[in-house]
Amino acid sequence: MQPGGGDMPTLGLLQQIEKDFGSYTNFKEKFIEAVLTSFGSGWVWLVLKREKKCLAIVKTTNAVNPLIWNDIVRNFSPIISLDLWEHAYYLDHKNDRGAYVKTFMDHLVSWDAATARIARAQAFVNLGEPKIPVA
Amino acid sequence: MSKISRGANFNSGNSRSVQTLSLPDLPYDYGALEPAISGEIMRLHHQKHHQAYVTNYNKALEQLDSAISKADASAVVKLQSTIKFNGGGHINHSIFWKNLAPVNEGGGDPPKGSLSNAIEKQFGSLEVLVQKINSEGAALQGSGWVWLALDKEFKRLLVETTANQDPIVTKGSALVPLLGVDVWEHAYYLQYKNVKPDYLKNIWKVMNWNYATQVYEKECI
After folding, report:
1. Is the pLDDT of residue B15 over 60?
2. Which residues of chain B make contact with A90, given a CB cutoff of 8 A?
3. Average pLDDT over residues B160-186
4. B189 phi/psi in degrees, rounded to 5
5. In the prediction, which pLDDT does A50 show?
6. Buried b (16+ CB within 10 A) or exposed e, B10-27
C-alpha cells in the first residue's frame, strides 16, 4: 500500500495483467470477488506463478503466505496482498468488506511496489516470449 | 413412445418451498450488556453480522433446493461450505445471545446446582474453568469460538474451540453447547481493540449461567 495509491498499474505489469486476466477491469473484478467470497481470517494475493509464468489470484487462511507453498506446482511470488483479518478494517469499515476492498483498489494499492516485486521476480522467471525461431 | 430422459425431475408436480430462517430478536436492549460489551458492538453484531449469516444461509438453501431438483451433484457439493459457514454462524450466534444476560437479569451470577457441582468435580473450581476457557480463547488462531460443552454420551463437561463458524457438533456429534464465547475480532475490536484478554476477562460479568444450567439439567435427566 502507499498514500495516494490506487489508480492503475502501468507498462510491463499492466501488460502482464492484461495477458493473464484479459483486462485490468476484469482483474479488479476477480480480486474483489475473491475478497467477498472469503470466510474468516485470511489474505487475498496477486501472485506470479513461477512454473506457469502467469499471474493469479489466490486466497490463504489465517497467517499463511504463498511463499511457503514451495513445490513445483505452487511456486509463487507475491505481487500484492490484502489483509482480510477483521482488525485490518473494522475500525474504518465495520462489517463492510466490500467498502474496504474498494478503498484498497481505488486509493491504497501500491502499483509501484507491485512493479518492483514483479521486476525482482523476473530474476527467477523469464516472462518474455522465448525467442526461438520457427524452423 | 417417449423416453424419459435421465435426470428428469420426477417431483415436477410438487411445488415445495424452502423453509427459510429469520434473525431472532435479542432478549435485551443493545446497551444492556454495558460496560462489558458496548451497545455499538451488540447492534452491529446482531443487525449486520448475524443478519448476514441468516440472509446468506437462506440464499444458499434456495440454491441448494434448485441444485437438488436439477440433480446437479456438483452444485450441491459446492454449496456445502457456504451452508456450513452461514448456517453455523446463525446457530452459534443464536446460542450466544442467550448465553449472555444483563447484570440485573442474572448476568455474571455464578452457576448453581448440578452444573456447579459438575464444574467443581471436573475442574476443581469455577475460577479454574474460566481460566481454561480464556486461555483457549486467547490462543485461538484466526477466527472462531471457544465453548463450554457437555458430552451427553459420557456426561462430561469439556472446553473446546471451533474455527470460523463451525458449530460444536463438528467436534463431536454428542456435544451440546452450554456457553459459547465469540472470539472473532468483530465481537470485541471496536471496544477492546487488539486486547482480546480484556474482552475475555469482562465477558464473564454478563455470562448467563442460568441458561447453561437449564441446558445442562435438561440433558442430564
Report:
1. no
2. 185-186, 189-190
3. 97
4. -60, -40
5. 84
6. eeeeeeeeeeebebeebe
Cα within 13 Å of Cα(A10), Cβ side: 5
User: Are the Cβ atoms of B164 and A40 closer than 8 angstroms?
Assistant: yes
Q: Is pLDDT above 80 for B4?
A: no
Q: Please give the average per-residue pLDDT across B192-206, as a whole number.
A: 97
Each residue's pLDDT tens digit, A25-59:
999 999 999 999 999 999 999 999 888 889 999 99
Give residue A129's pLDDT.
63
Cα within 13 Å of Cα(B105), Cβ side: 14
CA A57, A61, A67, A72 torsion-angle sign: negative
Best probe of the A interface among B185, B188, B191, B192, by most A CBs < 10 A, is B185
Set of chain B residues whose Cβ sits within 8 Å of the Cβ of A86: 143, 184-186, 189
Angle between helices B126-139 and B196-203 (to 10 degrees): 150
A87 vs B: CB within 8 A? yes
Tell me which residues of chain A, numbers 40 to 69, contact chain B at a CB-CB cutoff of 8 Å.
Answer: 40-42, 61-63
Compute the nearest-CA separation of A89 from chain B (Å).
10
What is residue A130's predicted lDDT score, i.e. its pLDDT? 62
